[in-house]
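To: structure subgroup
Subject: Chain for Friday's discussion

All,

I'm putting the inputs and outputs inline so they're searchable in the archive.
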Amino acid sequence: MLVELVAHARRLVPVDGRHVLGITGCPAAGKSTLALALAQELARHGDAVAAVPMDGFHLSDSALHQLGRRDRKGAIDTFDADGYLALLRRIRADRDRTIWAPGFARDLEQPIAGTIPVDPQVRLVVTEGNYLLAEDPPWPQIRAELVEVWYCHLDDDLRRDRLVRRHIEFGKSEQAARDWVRAVDDPNAALISSSRDRADLDIDMARIGPLGPTAG
């Protein structure tokens, strides 16, 4: 199925200008892994492509503490959505200079400014994030910047197991990881999945097979 997705993505590459393809889905469905695999395969075919995750727009832990939201990091209001929108608009409009997008250090669980280059020759940017199809402002404006949005889905039990393992890997006890999934990740997943029918493609990640370390 990856071959078909790569072929579909190649058809989105404009002859002139620049398009942004969005990939969304619930936490640990595999969207960031798919986005990276797509970007690598497109580059292998000679397409000028960049992968820019929404995770670079996580609010920092210090900001979340100030707002009283640190205990639900990853919820829709723990991102700088307006900053993300501004970056997408610049990516589409500014093709004369390299644009430096923020990344996300998973080991630190913090955004890192200016780590991902989008060079002038790039014609397709693949961006992935949880809330690309959400209805609350400014998410509809974000959707308007994307040529298509693909939704990744995966069996919920498998996805939750991946989440628990991820949280443990980055420092939580098993019980704390399970509590976080139940209290934070599951409500986020419910919001994300409610927008599934607005996607241009619905991708069963179980059909794609292993693509590398699971994330996103």
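Points worth raising on Friday:
The chain is about 40% helix and 20% strand.
The first helix runs from residue 2 to 11.

D.
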